[in-house]
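Input.
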Amino acid sequence: MMMLGWISTALVLIGYASNAKGYYLTAMISWIIGDIGWIIYDLYIMNYSHMVLSFIIITINIFGIARLWKEYSHTNKYNNELKN
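Output.
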């Protein structure tokens, strides 16, 4: 179970590095996967305050992915209209 904590930490750090390089979708996916691991680990060690934090971070990242998806869809629609 301790390995899960370290893997989750590594995924969260990969998320920070990806975000710093501008790879926002990769960052958010890394954070979500890492925080899911943290939630499992936190349940095991009964660290409920950190579990709630991880759940909130997952929720924020889901909204971020939805925003990126919306922007991407809008940009592609706009670019397609310019071609016609």
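The chain has a mean pLDDT of 90.
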